[in-house]
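Much of the work behind modern protein science is quiet bookkeeping, done one molecule at a time. The protein below has been through that process, and both of its lines are reproduced in full.
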Amino acid sequence: MSLGKAERRPRGELARVLVVDDEADIRELLDLTVARMGLSADCAATVAQARQLLEQHRYQLCLTDMRLPDGEGLEIVRLIGERYGETPVAVITAFGSAQNAVAALKAGAFDYLAKPVALDQLRSLIKSALSLPTRSGSSEAGQPSGAAAQLIGESMAIAQVRQMIEKLARSQAPLYVSGESGTGKELAARLIHDHSARRTAPFVPVNCGAIPENLMESEFFGYRKGAFTGADSDRAGFFQAATGGTLFLDEVADLPLLMQVKLLRAIQEKKVRKVGSTVEEAVDVRIISATHRMLKDCVDAGSFRQDLYYRLNVIELRMPPLRERQEDVEPLVAALLVRICGAQPPRVEAAAMRALKAYSFPGNVRELENVLERATALCSNDTVLIDDLQLAPAMAVSDSVGRDGETLDDYINRVEKQAIVEALTKTDFNRTAAARLLGVTFRSLRYRIERLGIEE
């Protein structure tokens, strides 16, 4: 095949793939694989030839090597991102070159393949790329579309989250969702999955903090019959359950170090080994992780592996706390009341709404929902009054000035401790009820109680 020119096949409506590699045998392998999938391929051996073809044709996918005679594959990744945003681009890296793969994903690559190229992984990647939904384009003025429509609010903070979700849904890169408890990290992960090429496959959420350490490997990777006492049949793990889809690892900072090593290998090699098996099996999942803790602090403290941190945190999506988007409180209240009460929710008096807007919500949207559930149960005459909210006065946003000589961390810890103590007091030190009142998980509350040194 002559390089730099489109191969002359009858095109019709066939999807077109651009293959960029300086090795003739790799180009031939990719071209043959593409053809057998009913697609059409154009081949180039250099960055310059790829540029020419991109100017001449519209492609549904680009596959490019990282090292080319006249430049790097990253040049093509960036070029396509800037000028041909609808075209996903996947890079082919040397075996074990994790650094190159991460660099490509950060630059905007859809996904990556390691040499020698596994044909099953190549076909899976091509199918995923061709399944990407087209960009919705500009929406009606002020009206979000797609994933954005499920995120309530018009603040700048939530608008930026919407934009990131639209972008991240068009990538296969590992994603880290950061944010406090109750900010909607799992919702964001689900929206990214639902608007990605993986939307028809499973979304599998896993709470890493809720799995006993001795069961972690078998829960994640599955096991073979007879692997241990009680293993009376083969069983799939989370990775197999999420095949073709997304595996959401919530509270990933709670993984023990030994499991972190195994997870790192599974992400890098895209293969897992069932407990009791002697062979690895390929897995096709996208990893989205989250934790309410500062993962970088865990790395610094030695409780989380730095190499795993860099593989999970290829791209970070920060979910803003509710106190940073107070203008969204009113529309959130309206939407949550409909969810709680149905089509005819109670009215919120003006003073009660002002109190909600002035409250800092340490438990974020989850706490707001809990506050409204309690208020609707207490209110009368279909009107929520300020007394029905039972907000802690110490947590008002207006109480934002620290004491003399008090650092920001000291101030935040003091306010958090006061809120927890008040919640524990109201619930007769029932931690489960207090966690529900604060809008956080029981595990999160227990961690905060230990960290702040709160004693009953």
Remarks:
- Confidence is low (pLDDT under 50) at residues 1-12, 137-148, 394-402.
- The chain is about 45% helix and 15% strand.
- The first strand starts at residue 16 and ends at 20.
